[in-house]
Design a protein that fits this description.
single chain, globular, 177 residues
Length: 177
C-alpha cells in the first residue's frame, strides 16, 4: 500500500501540481495503523502524520526520520483498546528524543467531546512534536470533529520541518550515531 500511496502522490503532482513537500497522512482504525506503518516506509514523502484510534497491534516500528505526529484516541475504544496508546507513543517519543514530560491542556475544545486532554511533547529531534488527544468516553468511532484539530496540526509542517522555521540542528545523539 505504501507504493500505491507514492503513486497517488506522483499522479496528483502531475495532474494538479500539488506541493509534494506538504502531503499529510491520517487514517482511522486500520488506517491509523497504516499511518504508523507509512512512517517506517515513506516518511520522506509525508510531512506530518495523524493516526486516529489506530496504534499498530504488532507494536511500534522505527520511523524513517523524526516526524510530527498527532494521535487521537477515545478511552472507551473496545476494538483498539486505549491501554495500548501510551506505551505505543512512548516508542516514538524515545526514538525522536522528546522531552519525557508532556505539556497538558485539559478540557481541550474538541467539537464533540468535552473534557479531552491534549498532551504535547516537544520540541523533539528536528523540531518535531508529538501530540496525543485523549478523549474520555469516546469509543471506536471516527469523528468529523477531529478534522479541524488534525488540519491545524499538520498544516504547520512540510517534509523539511515546521514551515517558516529553519530546521534545528541534529541532537547530540544523532550526531554521535
Amino acid at each position: 500500500d505504501t507504493k500505491w500511496v507514492t503513486e497517488i502522490i506522483a499522479q496528483m503532482e502531475k495532474d494538479y501540481k500539488i506541493n509534494t513537500k506538504r502531503v499529510y497522512l491520517s487514517g482511522f482504525s486500520m488506517g491509523g495503523m497504516f499511518t504508523y506503518h507509512a512512517m517506517s516506509k515513506i516518511a520522506d514523502k509525508i510531512a506530518a502524520f495523524s493516526p486516529c484510534s489506530g496504534p499498530n497491534v504488532y507494536g511500534a516500528s522505527k520511523a524513517q526520520r523524526p516526524v510530527p505526529i498527532m494521535h487521537i484516541h477515545g478511552t472507551n475504544d473496545d476494538v483498539l483498546n486505549y491501554s495500548m496508546v501510551e506505551n505505543f507513543l512512548k516508542n516514538y517519543r524515545d526514538q525522536f528524543n522528546c522531552p519525557s514530560k508532556a505539556e497538558e491542556q485539559g478540557n481541550y475544545p474538541n467539537a464533540e467531546n468535552s473534557g479531552g486532554t491534549m498532551y504535547t511533547w516537544g520540541p523533539c529531534d528536528k523540531g518535531v512534536y508529538i501530540k496525543h488527544l485523549k478523549l474520555p468516553g469516546r469509543g471506536h468511532s471516527p469523528s468529523k470533529a477531529d478534522v479541524s484539530d488534525i488540519w491545524n496540526f499538520v498544516k504547520q509542517w512540510d517534509v523539511n520541518g515546521k514551515i517558516g522555521e529553519e530546521a534545528p540542528e541534529s541532537s547530540s545523539s544523532e550526531v554521535a550515531s
